[in-house]
Amino acid sequence: MSTDGPLCLYQDEHLLVLHKPAGLLSVPGRGPDKQDCLIHRAQQHWPDALVVHRLDMATSGLVLLARNKATQAALSQAFAERQVHKRYVAVAWGELHDADDWQCINAPLRCDWERRPLQIVDPIQGKPSLTRYRRAPAQHGTPPGCTRLLLEPVTGRSHQLRVHMAHLNLPLVGDALYAPQPVQALAPRLLLHAQTLGFTHPHSRQAMFFEHPPDF
Question: What value, to the nearest 5°, has the Cα angle with vertex 91 and ends 161 and 8?
């Protein structure tokens, strides 16, 4: 198991803001081969670190951890009440036109039980799922035929951004779960990164804002 220390953007006696690399679990999975994860690495440096929310293993970006139960409860409530601002950067296969302003996709999601952990759009049995999206400025290195996106999940369903973009015929590059094989092969990792995190500090009540760019 690697013991590399996670990149820390902020720490105080109550909370931590860390960067999770792509390919690392947020929390341990089942089996001895799935114990290396962000929370275990964090606890080697901050033994009191506690989970507040998660990113998919394939997604990189900012993760907020608590350092005591009271802070964990307060931050968890803030997430549940949609008081935490999250913005992601992604690269999708396809052209997105007339999307320089924010648009919304409201497509209810549920687990595809026969193919767990995959999620599917289901207007009848799915849970309400809302994502804001817009085209981001093009950058050198974006694959031809692809669009750089800014994504904001209003709700927090499992795989929400990945499923919603695939539903719009804009599968994310490198997505091994929801993109066609040729789109998966365009990158060695999922091109989805949690770039921005904003929230109110539960103790000082100070507005906190963090940003960390992706490596793609």
Answer: 75
Q: Per the domain annotation, does 214 fall within a domain? A: no
Is residue 208 assigned to a domain? no
Answer with the one of 57, 81, 105 that is the final residue of a domain: 81
CB–CB of 24/35 below 8 Å?
Answer: no
CA 33/CA 47 separation, integer angstroms: 22
Q: CB-based contacts of 201: which residues, under 8 Å, 6+ apart?
A: 14, 15, 207, 208
Q: What are the beta bridge partners of residue 25?
A: 37
Looking at the annotation, which residues are catalytic?
56
Instruction: Yes or no: say if 71 and 179 are a contact pair by the CB < 8 Å rule.
Output: no
- Look up the pTM and report it: 0.94
Instruction: Encode pLDDT of 58-68 as tens digits.
Output: 999 999 999 99
Same domain, 107 and 173: yes
